[in-house]
Amino acid sequence: MTRRRLSFLTPLALLGLLVGLADLSHGSTGEDEDYYMQELLTREQYNQVQMLEKPVASIPDRHEHRGQNPAKKVPKGKEEGSRQTDQTTADAKSECPPMGLETLKIDDFQLHASSTKRYGLGAHRGRLNIQAGLYEDDLYDGAWCAGRDDPLQWFEVDARRLTKFTGVITQGRSSLWSSDWVTSYKVMVSNDSHTWVTLKNGSEDLIFSANREKEIPVRNVFPAPVVARYIRVNPRSWFNSGNICMRVEILGCPMPDPNNYYHRRNEVITSDDLDFRHHSYKEMRQLMKVVNDMCPNITRIYNIGKSQSGLKLYAIEISDNPGEHEVGEPEFRYTAGSHGNEVLGRELLLLLMQFMCLEYLSGNQRIRHLVEETRIHLLPSVNPDGYEKAFEAGSELSGWSLGRWSNDGIDIHHNFPDLNSILWEAEAKKWIPRKMFNHHVPIPEWYQSKNASVAVETRALIAWMEKMPFVLGSNLQGGELVVTFPYDKTRSQGVTREQTPTPDDHVFRWLAFSYASTHRLMTDANRRVCHTEDFAKEDGTINGASWHTAAGSMNDFSYLHTNCFELSMYVGCDKFPHESELPEEWENNRESLLVFMEQVHRGIKGVVRDLQGRGIANAVISVEGISHDVRTAADGDYWRLLNPGEYRVTARAEGYSLVSKKCEVGYEMGATRCDFKIGRTNLSRIKEIMEKFNKQPIRLPARPLQARRSRERRMGT
């Protein structure tokens, strides 16, 4: 199959934006008009890299640091501190990408240390942004910590081939209880791990300033690249109330070596020629417009609202009739970026929309079938305000949390109303189904008040979820490799971890496994744990509440308030991977993204009509044995996700008689058709007649009534 190449189309299409393209194809709205007049970012602006200044090698404050005093001086111009500053494009090009301590490309056997406090603080834990367990047990602590606090300690990385090293990034220890970080260090390199050469400033050892606290990463770029196989970081001073503890990333470029079997075995190459880079907000919109221009007949750009700072929340629809809901066609959604610093999901959705457009044009039958049978919505950036903060810092320097929250400090993903408690209380009081339904649980009034702590992005999401008849959806997260499914909140009060299944637990487990099992790494029993949990033992899936309880999640809200089954896909250990990692991450997730979309066609579907053939909106579809119902859309069509089997299904609506039938779901892909025709009840007809007469008794003429009473008296006698 010949793929059309985006690499040469993209610059032309972007340049075309400058000549005044004035409207979007298929259903564009007036509020998007300002979108086309945006000025393009130059390539030079995009390529600017946030780099840390080179350190001042000076004697540390004796009250602040311990260890050997780094008395070596660095000449002016090479001594610039340890915080971020803009550098030139030329500097950025000379800097190598991360070698992969954070992304696990560097395996545990490549990490060594002079000594270790205990196993859980071994060299294998000295990875940038690695997180400790809540209780910091012996296996999963948040850094490498030396067994002794003296200037003879070191942390070593074996690149397993000659590598051009250009810099080091460091953090302190991830811990709720301890404060440990290194404040300065030397760097040494070797080709044989026996003879070591220390980086010099003239004739003196070069000492780099490191961290001032434990979470913010600090990058130091070497004055000149060095080529070697091994590299060591040698702490020289550390926080006076703590110990020698570090999390590290090494910046390095492998030297060309076609005979290096290890490198070739682990190399992942993509054949998809897509735009593999991180996109600012403006670049994201421009890329969406490029795709819309290339595939105007199957795409539509729209926005669902605005962020706290006023940035529009843009979505792209992919369908053979964009802008229209087709009766019988299910609606699917992917969202990403509710945590602004979890960037991989955002870029995966931008890659997915490019891929689907190009493959549709090239005649890929699988993609054509998806587009023609499904209405797909992609919302790449739920929290653009948070993303811009992380994007400005850069992929290695945003840390674990910069940009996570909305501008007003709210975690959008967990900002939805807690409908679980409302439902469970109603079940305990036996109000279901007499006083309350087991589905479409209403939003409490307090949540809808203006004074409620609800992000504007959350309100926009809720309005979108209520408007569109979504059947299946997923939000892409980062920082782990696992798929989570509802419920996310534990049913037992005060319990932080507890298996809390929904009535559709078997369906959710299948949906989760469909993504995890087709991901390149999630179910690999030999893969390294990202942080503290070995999810591969559970086939890469877990019930959200059994991982950690969280009230008001998007997943639980979607299930309890709408028809949509929602899951969370944690698509990578690294929340914000370097641009060079995007092709491999795309290969890791591409098949999973497609397979999960295809699951929207599993189960039963149909239309509920009255005896005159008109669709009935808001009719309830119940499946025997599953205490969770769904409702029909405006045209009377419905979709009910189910695993293979035979089910007794009932359709009912207010004022209509209920109808039941058996519906069988097979193993082949494609929902089973299960339509219903229901008639009005006698009671509803009587009510209709009474309403016609303004709810007054129907009065008969006086004389016939008197005559009837006389007859009745005579018959009585």
SS strand fraction:
15-25%
Radius of gyration: 31 Å
What percent of residues adopt helix (DSSP H or I)? 10-25%
Task: Average the pLDDT over all residues and give the rounded result.
Answer: 85
Total of DSSP H or I helical runs spanning 4+ residues:
17
* Alpha-carbon distance between the two ends: 96 Å
Enumerate the spans where pLDDT stays under 50 for 5 or more consecutive residues: 1-92
Described by strand count, sense and barrel closure, the largest sheet is: 9 strands, antiparallel
Tally the beta strands: 29
Shape: elongated
Structural class: alpha+beta
Short description:
The chain has 717 residues and is an alpha+beta fold. It is built from 17 helices and 29 strands.
Describe the structure.
By secondary structure, this protein is of the alpha+beta class. The chain is 24% helix and 24% strand. The chain is built from 17 helices and 29 strands. The strands form six sheets. Strands 2, 4, 5, 6, 7, 8, 11, 12 and 13 form a nine-stranded antiparallel beta sheet that branches. An eight-stranded mixed beta sheet has the order 14-15-17-16-18-21-19-20, with helices on both faces. Strand 9 and strand 10 form a beta hairpin. Helix 5 packs parallel to helix 6. The protein starts with 5 loop residues before the first helix and ends with a helix. The N terminus is likely disordered. Keywords: Disulfide bond, Glycoprotein, Secreted, Signal. InterPro entries: CarboxyPept-like_regulatory (IPR008969), CARBOXYPEPT_ZN_1 (IPR057246), FA58C (IPR000421), Galactose-bd-like_sf (IPR008979), Peptidase_M14 (IPR000834), Peptidase_M14_domain (IPR050753). It is found in: Secreted. Its main location: secreted. Belongs to the peptidase M14 family.
